[in-house]
Amino acid sequence: MSTRLKFLFQRTYSSPEELLHKKFTIAEDLFSSWKDHFLKQEDFLNLLKEYEQAVLNSNSIMEKIKSFEECYICSVIDKKGCCKAGLENEVTINILLINMFLNKEIPLEREVSGRCFFVGPKGCKIFARPYLCREFFCKRLKEKFREEEYIKLTQAIAEELTLLYRLCEYIKREYQFLLGEFLFEMDITGYS
After folding, report:
1. pTM of the predicted structure, to 2 decimals
2. If you placed Cys at 98, which of 30, 72, 105, 128 could pair as Cys (CB 3.0 to 4.6 Å)?
3. Residue 31 · residue 100 · CB < 8 Å
4. How confident is the prediction for the chain on average, in pLDDT?
């Protein structure tokens, strides 16, 4: 573990993607070694299913109120907004693992220069997303939402993020039990 931590805590990387690729390698190794252990646990599968449904519910609301469309315009077309290069470092090993457990595709290359690694030509390409990406609404978005839309969306996202937290804690606790070590790097965002 100390070798993994030493790499993850270094302050400089040869490319913006280097830390993300290292997290992906660790997540892939953990997943391939222990996925069967997790997939035999009914409580884990139920929590995973609840989380997936909560994300789909939040996404549905965001689509209806055109939040995704507005973020796409702001980030990809106007080249402004929050989805800047570097934001991908909010993705933790835990979030990568959740995508793997949900059998969701994880992009391996940056498509839109100068933007977050996970921004594609039509918006965000990752299913399970970091807390920051789900709970932040800029002034531009808030001005677009009607009050009842904003309330409905924030309630849905609160449920989603609560389940994300529970899922991340579950995964971390299980890996700590399985590997007999404290896996601090599971939650590292990696900003330097």
Report:
1. 0.88
2. 128
3. yes
4. 86
Rounded Cα gap, residues 156 and 184, in angstroms: 29
Paired tokens of 52: 């997936």
Backbone angles phi, psi at 13, to 5 degrees: -130, 150
The CB density around residue 165, as the number of other CB atoms within 10 Å, is 13
Vertex 51 angle, CA 50 and 54, to 5°: 90
Identify whether the C-beta of residue 127 lies closer than 8 Å to the C-beta of residue 99. Answer: yes
Q: Which of 173, 174, 170, 86 is nearest to 130 (CA)?
A: 86
Q: Which of 86, 90, 96 is nearest to 172 (CA)?
A: 96
How far apart are the C-alpha atoms of 48 and 111, rounded to whole Å? 28
Nearest to 163 by CA among 109, 103, 95: 95
Contact 172, 186 (CB under 8 A): yes
CA distance 66 to 60: 10
pLDDT of res. 192: 42
Rounded Cα distance between 58 and 66, Å, is 12
Structure tokens, 57 = 């519910």
The yes-or-no verdict on residue 44 having pLDDT over 90 is yes
| Domain range list for the chain | 2-186
Reported as half-sphere exposure (CB side, CA atoms, 13 A), residue 61 has a value of: 19
